Amino acid sequence: MLNEASDRNRSLAVVLVSGGLDSCVTAAIANADHALALLHVSYGQRTEARELRAFNDIADFFCAEKRLVVSLDHLRQIGGSSLTDPTIAVPDADLGRSAIPTTYVPFRNAHLLCIAVSWAEVIGAGHVYIGAAQPDSSGYPDCRPEFYDAFGKAIDLGTKPETTISMVTPLINQTKKEIVQKGVSLGAPLQLTWSCYRNEDVACGTCDSCTLRLRGFDQAGIQDPLPYPSNRLHEDRA
Amino acid sequence: MLNEASDRNRSLAVVLVSGGLDSCVTAAIANADHALALLHVSYGQRTEARELRAFNDIADFFCAEKRLVVSLDHLRQIGGSSLTDPTIAVPDADLGRSAIPTTYVPFRNAHLLCIAVSWAEVIGAGHVYIGAAQPDSSGYPDCRPEFYDAFGKAIDLGTKPETTISMVTPLINQTKKEIVQKGVSLGAPLQLTWSCYRNEDVACGTCDSCTLRLRGFDQAGIQDPLPYPSNRLHEDRA
Q: For B207, which of A221, A226, B34, B59 is 20 to 30 Å away at the CA?
């Protein structure tokens, strides 16, 4: 219940909220300056029901002024990723790898940004926030700052002349440790988030997303509020 | 039936085919050099059933090696356009206007390109063709060459390092007259296309899209193969 002051004088910002750690902290950052228009996109990923629950919990927490939930079918139709194709297993984390893992969903973040930009143009929001972070990412190409710089130019050129939408990536150079610390300092509801790529009941603790999250909490010296299977001790992930 | 030679030695190109004149001519251009992977996107526009029929007719004509039909709900959810919001009337053409007409669908072409790029990355297509044309357009910002230049950079930076996808806009600087002439010279099946924004049975002849199309045929000195209401004489549109 962070928005007790009236939002009438605050400009709107669209924030992409997957329901994970990074997007929750991003919403907390945007909330300091803007009324929130929170956007969630389900795209056929394995844990979409759990992520949607996390989104709604987070949107309730921030008393979001607007919310939009979009369901895409085409990224699943197109496939090519272990997140959207049930015949490809989600691998355990291998943070030392150089190849892009099978969890990469081709050009996914561009789809998410397009939806955010169209919505922002219609509701008059001047900012689109996305919680992409390059350090401690899985090496996805659409998490790099250069991609967002280029996409920002496409937004300027592809929308109406009177439309001004800034793309904001407040976490782009932050490590997971720093993101956890930032979230705690802002009072972000990290207990409501969901990061696991595999499960919707108890987070597996071993996929890329769980591993990066747990290492971030460990390095920050903060206990992750989510439960994990008892055989996944934090020491394993150092 | 233009693809009688085997496509096995031709590289794949994804072509966005709405079913209109420009995309049909673009498919004919791409067909000269590539095996075709034709993509159609329905996004809740008024004439989506008729456009889908045109797409399938065109894909049959070219014996497309692959085809993908995607249905988006979110552009209708987001609204802000007379093409997707039934409460906003589609205006008659006013080609001398300076404002962007209500038929503009916010950032639409970026959504279409994202789908094309994701599909191209998965099927290994090295080119994405789109029939955007700036002259004789309705002034939509996402029909400008600068937008495609910026988006092309976002494609390079947002896909895997080994992915190389060129964006091709062969009509970007062509007038409607030149597009009609090009289509006729390539034997493109213009009789299978659909351009009208309003109707699905007989094209209205008076919306922006019909007006620009008819003017292009008139200026090329070629009879539009589609029927129009008898009170819309070609002289009215000179």
A: B59
